[in-house]
Write a structure and sequence with these properties.
The protein is α+β, with helices and mostly antiparallel strands and 243 residues long. Helices cover 23% and strands 39% of the residues.
């Protein structure tokens, strides 16, 4: 009986020791996994997430790039078109990013673009830094836009619902009404543009709330400087120096 009792104690001790060793080993692996250093890593996509799983940043190639996300829900269009970095706010909604493309076609022509944007809350781009080059026709600039306060998710859901209408005339009319200006203010309007346009001019353009240019400072490709004042129809009302 004494031997059996001692054997039971030994078995219990062995089981407890094994359990403690497993727990310590697991804890050690978890601790090591919290901070790992790599000299080099090849990866197609990295998701940076909060402790609750909400996305904060996605770095990816083109095929694995993410589409628009609103409060953790995909919407609008599928991924696979935006290689680069996409940012997300505290609610898991996209609020900007850095994307880039560039390739030479079979006919020898090329296109290239790089854009960094910051979105209005629950809306789209309100500040952008963008470079585009279409086979030598280059433009580089900063744009500040003004956007409607309507929620982008609600707009896209309404658009998708309208697009399911079988009556093409009714569909077109409903889409025009959905995206029409509210109280005279369009859904999106460029207010400030500073950059180099495709005519090789350095330009500062200031627009009204409807997005119509009203003041334009320009230095053209030959070095000629001008200041133009425009009315709401786009006509130049005054120019310095006078033509």
């Amino acid at each position: 009986m004494r031997i059996r009792s001692e054997l039971r104690l030994l078995k219990g001790y062995a089981a407890l020791s094994t359990l403690l060793l497993a727990l310590l080993t697991t804890a050690a692996f978890r601790q090591a996994a919290q901070k790992t250093r790599f000299t080099e890593i090849d990866v197609e996509r990295i998701n940076v997430v909060e402790p609750d799983g909400k996305l904060r940043m996605v770095i990816s190639n083109r095929p694995r790039s993410i589409g628009p996300v609103y409060k953790g829900k995909p919407f609008g269009y599928p991924g696979g078109t935006r290689p680069g970095i996409i940012f997300f706010n505290d609610e898991g909604t996209e609020n900007g990013g850095l994307t880039f493309t560039g390739r030479r076609r079979e006919d020898g022509t090329y296109s290239s673009s790089v854009g960094m944007s910051f979105d209005q809350f629950n809306q789209d781009e309100t500040l952008t830094l963008r470079y585009t080059d279409e086979n030598g026709r280059k433009a580089t600039g900063i744009t500040i836009a003004e956007r409607d306060e309507r929620d982008i998710y609600d707009l896209i859901m309404a658009r998708d619902s309208i697009n399911r209408l079988s009556d093409s005339v009714a569909r077109t009319a409903a889409l025009q009404q959905l995206f029409a200006p509210r109280n005279g203010v369009p859904l999106a309007a460029s207010r400030v543009y500073l950059g180099r346009d495709r005519s090789r001019s350095a330009v500062l353009s200031l627009s009204d709330p409807s997005g119509k240019p009203r003041l334009r400072l320009r230095v053209d490709s030959l070095g000629n400087a001008s200041v133009e004042f425009l009315d709401a129809s786009g006509a130049v009302t005054a120019r310095l120096p006078n033509p």
